[in-house]
Amino acid sequence: MTSEWSSSEKKIARRVFDAALQCELAEVLLHFKAMAANATEPGHMWSTEEYLSKARREIDSKYDYRYSQLHVVFGRLLREGRISEVELAGLSEENLQLIRRIASP
């Protein structure tokens, strides 16, 4: 599953990757703020901390910007609906095929 990334593809990949990551981080922050605002007893602190720890582990494992991993990352993001094929326009057909294959259920 190796494919070369041209310099223009690397720019596209970085833009798509960063946008998806920032969007997901914004969702986590919004959820965190709601949980913190609704915390009325000490136990709520720990459930909030647990939520943040889980979210961090998931994000850290999902967003890996090594070129050897981008097909998997983009395939997963595409499957989850976090990115669209339109955003990947400009990638080589070989890279797109690998990403689509990974995105398929």
Question: Can you describe this structure in just a few lines?
Answer:
By secondary structure, the chain is mainly alpha-helical. It is 70% helix and 0% strand.
Name its key features.
0% strand; mainly alpha; 105 residues; single chain
Written overview of the protein:
This protein starts with 6 loop residues before the first helix and ends with a helix. The protein is elongated, with a radius of gyration of 17 Å. It has one domain. The protein is mainly α and about 100 residues long. Helix 1 packs antiparallel against helix 2 and helix 3 crosses helix 4. About 70% of the residues lie in helices and about 0% in strands. The chain has helices spanning about 5-35, 40-60, 70-80, 95-105. It has four helices and no strands.
Count of all domains: 1
The class by helix and strand makeup works out as: mainly alpha
Mean pLDDT: 95
Number of helices: 4
Strand content: under 5%
Low-confidence regions: none
DSSP helix fraction? over 70%
Please tell me what the overall shape is.
Answer: elongated
**How widely separated are the two ends?**
18 Å
Total number of strands: 0
Return the string of H and E elements: HHHH
Return Rg in Å: 17 Å
Largest sheet: none
Topology:
Blueprint: H1 7-37, H2 42-62, H3 70-80, H4 93-103
Helix pairs in contact: 1-2, 3-4
